[in-house]
Design brief:
The structure is a homodimer. In chain A, 37% of the residues lie in helices and 19% in strands. By secondary structure, chain A is an alpha+beta fold. The first copy, chain A, has two domains: 1-84, Orthogonal Bundle (Arc Repressor Mutant, subunit A); 85-146, 2-Layer Sandwich (Dna Ligase, domain 1). The longest helix of chain A has 13 residues, at 51-63. Bound molecules: manganese (II) ion (MN) (2 copies) and zinc ion (2 copies). One zinc ion is lined by residues 92, 94-95, 97, 132, 134-135, 142 of chain B. Chain A binds a DNA duplex through helix 4.
Chain lengths: 151, 151
Amino acid sequence: MSDLLARLRARRWRLTAQRRVVAQVLDGDHVHFTAEEIHARAAALLPEISRATVYNTLGELVAIGEVLEVSTDGRAKRYDPNAHHAHQHLVCDSCGTIRDVHPSVDPLVGLPTAERYGFTVSRVAVTYRGLCPDCAAGSAGAASALTDAEA
Amino acid sequence: MSDLLARLRARRWRLTAQRRVVAQVLDGDHVHFTAEEIHARAAALLPEISRATVYNTLGELVAIGEVLEVSTDGRAKRYDPNAHHAHQHLVCDSCGTIRDVHPSVDPLVGLPTAERYGFTVSRVAVTYRGLCPDCAAGSAGAASALTDAEA
DNA sequence: CTGTTGACTTAGACAGTGTCTAAGGTAGGG
DNA sequence: CCCTACCTTAGACACTGTCTAAGTCAACAG
Ligand SMILES: [Mn+2]
Ligand SMILES: [Mn+2]
Ligand SMILES: [Zn+2]
Ligand SMILES: [Zn+2]
């Protein structure tokens, strides 16, 4: 991710302050922020950045394959800068934590040709759900953690 | 699904006309309607049924495990009455068609304990994406099909 | 059969997420 | 240093889902 700006320059993107801060917020690998979270963090660095610009920039990063969209629930999409290493996600049903995981077998091999109904299958998204270690120990703390996260 | 009403009676549900038509709309297995689609079909049978009641009823059916929620994209959730036979989904990127598929191996076995980070994993959702046979043959027709579906 | 009552339904307001438009601003080439 | 095409902005709008207060009725008791 550290040379994302170089790659964007190579794509002849205009390097604006807004795009720089969005890239900077996404710079830590293994994050899965919502657009609003990214906007809040970007605004801490560049207060006048608008919601529309964050959505525009994220949409462009997704379109060129530098960022992945992750829809784990029916809530806001999450944006994943770890786009250059195929992986899947492990989600806690209680607190919503998301972790990257790397299954030992390609999830595509589980689907025989006979079960593809003529589809040309090119991608597969796997979401493993359960409880994280913190939430598994004491559901009261788990519930409040979720409440905190949603507040 | 045909004895869904019997199961609801056994759970001491009040059998209202509204709940009956929602159950009737979901009666055909292998459908994946949005709440709005279910409301439209239910209203064709019982014109005065409200959106709120459709959402309430679907939420209750999901809570008791008679219907599954499916979030394939960031759009509206889809409601799946095929809850008594574990399956996964195959989605066309172009027209949005959803098909039930039955992988030959349990998707959970692909995730070794070492990759679970202490999580207690209880469920897994797999979404296979690609192009359906119709859309693979001629992307113009495919694009218009998606436009139609969204209109 | 009839009356009672708590569960159910309703319209519409509201909230969260994402898209669009028109007007103004600016990065980068010349 | 100027231009101009591309970018950003505020805010309106659309879609999806939730909530509330008031009215209605399914089921049961008598
Ligand atoms: Mn990830
Ligand atoms: Mn299904
Ligand atoms: Zn947790
Ligand atoms: Zn298709």
